Amino acid sequence: MKILVCMKQVPQKDAPLKLNESGTWIREDVSYEVNEPDAYALEEALRQREKHKGEVVVITSGPARAQQVLREALAKGADRAIHLEDEKFVGLDAFNTAKAIAAAIKDEPFDLIFTGLQSDDYGYAQTGVILAELLGWPHATIIMQIEKTDAGIRVKRELEAGYFQFVDMPLPAVLTIQSGINKLRYATLIGIKQAKNKPLRKVTLAEVGGAIGNNLQKIERLYVPQKTKKTEYIEGPAGEVAKKLVDKLRNELRVL
Q1: Is 149 a member of any domain?
Q2: CA-closest candidate to residue 200, choices 59, 98, 77
Q3: What domain range includes position 162?
Q4: Is residue 217 part of a domain?
Q5: Does residue 228 sit within a domain?
Q6: Of 109, 172, 176, 235, which is most buried, counting CB atoms within 10 Å of its CB?
Q7: Residue 129 in contact with residue 174, Cβ under 8 Å?
Q8: Is the dihedral of CA 246, 250, 251, 255 positive or negative?
């Protein structure tokens, strides 16, 4: 079974927010890490390979710093990596990112493509399902379990209110993996050493540029909410105080 795992480098969760001069995204001088949902997608791909053999390939897009995501994946056990390397990949929306990935893998016959459910920065949860549409493959989201069958795969999807759905799917297919589907492994010292010698193919913007168009989504402005403190005392008999408090909670704060 040949599996592609789409991974992304995102700002660390505890990194202080610093906006760029245009106020459209954060500055580059922050710390970065692997997008957590993608780490679960990688782990599930490695487990599927251990059960059914095959190959796990990881792919990411972004500047040179994003290569760290691929190195970590290779150290954990991925077989090889693909890096769409260019600063301009950072500014692409989900539609164009999916187009770029599809163009980069057009000559490779994958059985499954995994993505994390969503990214920790944008949180759109769009790239995986758009990629499936571009490839013309069936897809399923919020995956909690995957079993190989004679006809393809059977997946368990997490729904609302504690419900689950089981779906039988043919291959090839695209799945977006839910965080918590498994327990993440750590890279071993041997794995870190081996990662240095594993294949890493670089794809330039020019190679996939023909597939990319104008962004369909655009961030106009970001801002950091200003913290304010205000204390208001309500005086009078208990009955009146209760009525005034309920009125403020309902009409001013809108929490009731």
Answers
A1: yes
A2: 59
A3: 2-211
A4: no
A5: no
A6: 176
A7: yes
A8: positive
CB atoms near residue 176 (< 10 Å): 26
pTM exceeds 0.85: no
The rounded distance, in Å, linking the Cα atoms of 103 and 82 is 12
**Is the dihedral angle over the CA atoms 211, 216, 129, 89 positive or is it negative?**
positive
Residue 225 belongs to a domain: no
β-pair type (112-116, 2-6): parallel
Burial class, 175, CB count within 10 angstroms (exposed 0-12 / middle 13-18 / buried 19+): buried
In order, the DSSP letters of 184-226 are PPPPPHHHHHHHTTS-EEEE-HHHHGGG----S-------PPP
CATH number assigned to the domain comprising residue 116 = 3.40.50.620
Q: How far apart are CA 155 and CA 165, in angstroms?
A: 8
Tens place of pLDDT per residue across the chain (256 aa): 999 999 999 988 887 777 877 777 777 778 899 999 999 999 999 999 999 999 999 999 999 999 999 999 999 999 999 999 999 998 899 999 999 999 999 999 999 999 999 999 888 899 999 999 999 999 999 999 999 999 999 999 999 988 999 999 999 999 999 999 999 999 999 999 999 999 999 999 999 999 999 988 888 888 777 777 778 888 899 999 999 999 988 988 888 7
CB atoms within 10 A of CB 72: 21
The radius of gyration of the chain from alpha carbons, rounded to an integer in Å, stands at: 22
How many domains are contained in the chain? 1
